[in-house]
Amino acid sequence: MPDTPPPARIPAADRAYELTKDLILSGGLPGGMLISEGEIAERAALSRTPVREAFLRLQAEGLLQLFPKRGAVVVPVGPGEAEDVLELREALESTAVRRITRRAEPLDDLLRQLSELIDLQREPARRADVGAFADADEAFHRGIVTAGGNALAERFYETLRDRQRRMAVQLLQPRPERLAALIEEHTALVERIAARDAAGFTEALRAHLDAHR
């Protein structure tokens, strides 16, 4: 039996990038915070060169602003950006549900899938694990867009993923008691889909997203 090859080693720059990005999106590095290459290099047990590469990638993504010889500042989520993301989410999810509810076939499989995605939110909510809840929340809403069957909309929604997670963490970290209410709101959204009530879904979704404004 041939030997199993060892797993491919992740390049150092990618490790630094993933670590720093996760810290930003999870709120570990809040907006406005000044960080240095040395701090991240120490956390990741790396030299500064791959961290410098990672910082350049994150600056291109709009998550960091670099200042030569000083370090980098974590770019905060601006009120305008948050509003833009929420408007796009409302448009994409509402359009998906209009397409879903026009179909003649039963919705049983979709409703079961969405209910399972809601169930995945319950344990993080119980533990007040905002980061894990934000991931499950994003998966639920993305599931609605995917079910709409518009591949272009699905790909565009994927580009909002990082911003959506970061905004959710920023909103919910000081208010973990809100997690249980969000599960109830998600359940109400699924009920509107089950009733094939696209207009009611849009109204409920708007109220749900208003909490993020």
CATH class descriptor of the largest domain: Mainly Alpha
Principal-axis shape equals elongated
The name of the CATH architecture of the largest domain is Up-down Bundle
Number of continuous helical runs: 10
The portion of residues assigned to helices is: 55-70%
SSE pattern, N- to C-terminal = HEHHEEHHHHHHH
Low-confidence stretches: none
Strand order of the largest sheet: 1-3-2
Please provide the count of β strands.
Answer: 3
Rg value: 20 Å
In CATH, the homologous superfamily of the largest domain goes by the name GntR ligand-binding domain-like
Integer average pLDDT = 93
Number of domains: 2
The oligomerization state is: single chain
| Main β sheet profile | 3 strands, antiparallel
C-alpha end-to-end distance: 59 Å
Question: Brief description of this entry?
Answer:
The chain is mainly α.
Layout of SSEs?
Blueprint: H1 12-25, E1 34-35, H2 37-44, H3 48-60, E2 64-67, E3 71-74, H4 79-102, H5 108-127, H6 130-147, H7 151-159, H8 161-172, H9 178-194, H10 198-210
Antiparallel strand pairs: 1-3, 2-3
Describe this structure in words.
With 213 residues, the chain is mostly helical. It is built from ten helices and three strands; from the N terminus they run H-E-H-H-E-E-H-H-H-H-H-H-H. It has helices at 12-25, 37-44, 48-60, 79-102, 108-127, 130-147, 151-159, 161-172, 178-194, 198-210, and strands at residues 34-35, 64-67, 71-74. It has a three-stranded antiparallel sheet. Strand 2 and strand 3 (71-74) form a beta hairpin. Helix 4 packs across helix 6 (130-147), helix 5 packs antiparallel against helix 6 (130-147) and helix 5 packs antiparallel against helix 9. The mean pLDDT is 93.
